[in-house]
Hints:
The structure is a single chain. 38% of the residues lie in helices and 14% in strands. With 429 residues, it is α/β, with parallel strands linked by helices. The chain has three domains: 1-58, Aspartate Aminotransferase, domain 1, CATH 3.90.1150.10; 83-318, Type I PLP-dependent aspartate aminotransferase-like (Major domain) (Aspartate Aminotransferase, domain 2), CATH 3.40.640; 321-395 and 409-429, Aspartate Aminotransferase, domain 1, CATH 3.90.1150. The protein is globular. Bound molecules: pyridoxal-5'-phosphate (PLP). Its EC number is 5.4.3.8. It is an enzyme of class 5 (isomerase). It is found in: Cytoplasm. InterPro entries: 4pyrrol_synth_GluAld_NH2Trfase (IPR004639), Aminotrans_3 (IPR005814), Aminotrans_3_PPA_site (IPR049704), PyrdxlP-dep_Trfase (IPR015424), PyrdxlP-dep_Trfase_major (IPR015421), PyrdxlP-dep_Trfase_small (IPR015422).
Amino acid sequence: MGSLSASYFERAQEVIPGGVNSPVRAFKSVGGSPLFIQSAKGAYLKDVDGKEYIDLIGSWGPMLFGQAHPSIENAVRDALSKGFSFGAPSYNEVLIAEKIVSMIPSIEKVRLVNSGTEATMAAIRLARAYTKRDKIIKFEGCYHGHGDSFLIAAGSGVATLGTPDSPGVTVSTAKDTLTAVYNDLSSLRNLFEANPTDISAVILEPVVGNMGLVIPEPGFIEGIQQLCKTYGSLLIFDEVMTGFRLSSSGYQGLTNIQPDLTTLGKIIGGGLPVGAYGGKAEIMNMIAPAGPVYQAGTLSGNPLATSAGLAMLNLISEHPEVYDALNQKGKALAEGIRQQLSELQIDGFVNQIGSMFTLFFTNKAVKNFSDAKTSDTAKFGIYFREMLNQGVYLPPSQFESWFLSAALDEAHIDHILKASRIALEKTLM
Ligand code: PLP
């Protein structure tokens, strides 16, 4: 008898393009049929057929403390009892903005939106208005949501589907997005030299999650900031993934580098739809109604979303030890899988920082998108399917980061490592 997931997917494909509401969920690049999830708690996802999986996707990042954490659940229940959308200011919006400003030093003012995509779109509009320049520079394989300007050499689901330039993005939009090679300052310098007065901003994931996990080489981000200063361009950190995941002040908290603007999402919504962009007050004051740059949202600052986000940020403040604990788990997993690769003589390369992690099926150190693309995606598919079989739910693509949560304990890490050994052996058959 077929599974309920398979039958739901068949029905979904009749009424939803590709059967899913976000492409990478469809399992296209790993094969098989997607699971429909019924519920999630702590370290586990449960599908509609009743099977449980250790959750290493964490809703693509938000679930730092695991699924349905009681503090967040209670905050949302409490908010729900008071109504769930006002279209007028509410006190939680002030509280969450104050919290973000206090936690991320480069952010003096912040605007809430409903997704990471909205945040990045608004941030580049603002950068263009502030600098009175049109072009932006992004890095190949970085994903900044599905705004037209960013679907140029983009990572994540776009990389998985092999359609980096989406039809529907106009040639005139694409010409204002220049792309550099991640971890290669000279490629960025060349673009600046060729367009010295045209670049409004450089936007990047300071640690990249969307070509699989890729970590900046020493001096790379500092070099970008220096070039931005030299040419009068803004530096935008897209910390939708890394914000509050790598530290309580994001990637920037691990360094002394303060960007002009930062985009946030995922964790700041605690699992509800929220994004945000913020930065220097002088720049942010150009946003309407304080200034002329238009940006708005019917549901922006939604009371349920802000209550979930605020509960999440409070949890982080109350548990600063969470990052060390997550890093230890990340390291244990990375070391365990590296050892398995070497014992089984499999070409593989593991990148890990804190609770972000990717196993690439390649014999190359992965430092940029071209390196990532040398991975054997068919092997990843075999590995993914066997991990699922063994009760471990990974992001269904080679070009994504796994997200560890504080709900994982040593027994879970053991389970993941045992499953990984079996899955790696499968790739040899
Ligand atoms: N920026 C980064 C770095 C992301 O990882 C994502 C989503 O994965 C986005 C922006 C877009 O966020 P959203 O999916 O909430 O629109």
